[in-house]
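Continued from yesterday's entry.
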Amino acid sequence: MSRKTRIILVNARNPLNIGAAARAMANFGFEDLALVNPYDPAWQEARSAVGAQELLHRAKTFATVEDAVRDCNLVLGTTSGQRRSLELENMALPQLPGFLESKIPAGRLGVLFGSEKTGLLNEHLAFCHATVTIPTDKQTPSMNLSHAVAVCCYVLARGGQGKPAARAKAPKRPDMAEVERVSGRLLRLYQLADFQKGASDAVKREWIRRIFLELDLGRDRILQAGTLLERIIKKLEGRG
């Protein structure tokens, strides 16, 4: 699990939190750290990354969440649930190992953590298949960023222990780049049909992406849908 999991920090503001998150990842065997638009360029030198400087220096930076999850097959967002408005499946952290076991083979898992100030926004959660909440006291529901990373990494590492249960061969999951391609083709059909004229293309694309994420189709089905949509578009545009 650890080698196939990417920890993604979105708009992280404090270099010390980034360093401490890297240290927590190293504690539990996680190696793939990504940062989306980090606030301070000095984060790679954070002294809090004790024993994890190499991991920190290997971390990838991205301009957007879409770029960071492009090669992920399953994306989860962490949230306290206080400001979440999207209709996403939500689970408490202890339920996460069972959730992952119930899914078709996940490939690369991406776990998003929001900034210390705002957490994950709806525009970030729009790329998630589901959300995870760490059970905390109602009086103080929000955790420090690096602490949240540590707790999640512990549960993910612990959930991967032991002999996996026997299971029938299941289809591969599409990565998010493939989901985005088929979403773009369906958006083009929306445009050709002059459908939902009152909504912006960005809003339409978010609706479409949510449809495909909730359907949770295997990779073969997503690719077939993309091919079919492309042929319909060509016919409508007089190109085939």
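--- second protein ---
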Amino acid sequence: MKALAFETATEACSVALLSDGETIELHEIVPRKHTERLLPMVEQLLSEAEISLNQLDFLTFGRGPGAFTGVRIAASAAQGMAFGADLPVVPVSTLAVLAQNAYEQTNATTILSCIDARMSEVYWSVYKPALNGVVEIYQEEEVVAPTDICITNDLSDNIAAVGSGWLTYKDELTAMCSKFIQTYIDDIYPHANQLMKLAISEFEKGNAVSPELALPVYLRDDVAKKSTKPPVC
């Protein structure tokens, strides 16, 4: 299997190439320079592996949520490359990529994934590992004020927290969640290596889409449609 993965929804620009069971990754922290770095990083990995785009089985990208510009860059790049090489695409949640990283570092049985969404809000979701070693969503993604986060009481005892939201809103989130959490992950950026693992699982389930359906997910677009009823925990 051969595949290309890239993630640009945060300050990190991360690219990984899978070829015959081996994954190589380039990972840089380049705020506001994703458009300058993404394609050169892709070209570097393809050149090193002596692989062309049309030899790949699929493309995958971090579809957000995250920084609006970064999410659009990844989606546009995925669509352009996939159309040109006639490849299927596997969109993967950026929150899930963070959760996969946390799981691999800690073996936590529950991961609280949280990205700073600006405007005094965070992108938030809860994940649990499946038997195949990749995380699955347990609590739906949402954009929410840190003080409005709802954590159900049926979570495990081994809980990890990951993402930039835990740094930006440390006091608010700690007040809401500290009694649940055993481990805080210092690496707050998503990596294409973990994105690739999630994408392989989805690809094998038949969850790839055609290029025109490789769309970004912003979450904030849906805020006005959300119910004003308080969450049931």
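The chain has six helices and ten strands. The longest helix spans residues 68-85. Will compare against the first tomorrow.
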